[in-house]
Amino acid sequence: MATAYKSVEALLQSRQPQLPVYCIYTHVYHETARHFVHGFPGRVLYAVKANDNPVVIQALHSAGINHFDCASLPEIELVRKLCPHATCYLMNPVRLDGHAQLAQSSHAVHHFMIDHLSGLGPLLHEIDIGQSVIFARMAVSHESAVGDLSTKFGAPTQDIPDLLTAINDAGAEAALAFNVGTGVMRPEAYSYALGQAREVLNEIPFRIRLLDVGGGFPRSYPGFPAPPLDEYFAAIFGMRHELPLKDGG
């Protein structure tokens, strides 16, 4: 059970804890979420795996976050319980058998992800193809990222056109995703990644509607200064009109 306190000092005086206490600054989550909602040039998704505490999920939702990137069925179930009208995305290319089907039939999930052609067939067997969006995840790395995720998830850039085409030919809506990495310390990393996305999209004979711009947008901590979020938003917005995307994203 979460209890609200006016300050850390008030908590210490009231509880005098002998063990570490997990404190959530809901106003920080709210302010940051509002900053994203108003500044990011597109819909804003929160990756539940970053912090799945119900207080955090509810704080973000109350601030205007209505889209949630989920890595598993339990994360989807959590969001559905807390935010019944939010949109959930099952954005893990590695899933347990049957989870995509359950996510769609029980929780109205229509957005999925793959990063290899071998993952397409099994996914198609579990979902309503004509009512689904399938993201192809492109491996992207940049030297300014504290953590490189391209070795864990994502298809090589040269494989993405064929992967998008296969999704489109199967009858689902094809979309593109990438993640620049965790703790990306230079906004131009997003310009670089979007430039790679532009090259890929110019190679396919159709246009997609959705592009998932993923990454670790950093916050400043003591000893860990980070550029303002607005500089990241500006870098992304600056590339937006160079991307061959359909309207309606």
Please tell me the overall pLDDT: 92
Number of helices: 9
Assembly form of the protein: single chain
**Number of distinct beta strands:** 9
CATH architecture of the largest domain: Alpha-Beta Barrel
Describe the structure.
With 249 residues, this protein is an alpha/beta fold. It has two domains: 20-90, no CATH class; 98-242, TIM Barrel (Alpha-Beta Barrel). Helices cover 37% and strands 15% of the residues.
Task: Give a brief description.
The protein is α/β, with parallel strands linked by helices. The chain is 37% helix and 15% strand. The chain has two domains: 20-90, no CATH class; 98-242, Alanine racemase (TIM Barrel).
Supply database-style keywords.
4-stranded parallel beta sheet, 3-stranded parallel beta sheet, 37% helix, 249 residues, 2 domains, 15% strand, single chain, TIM Barrel, alpha/beta
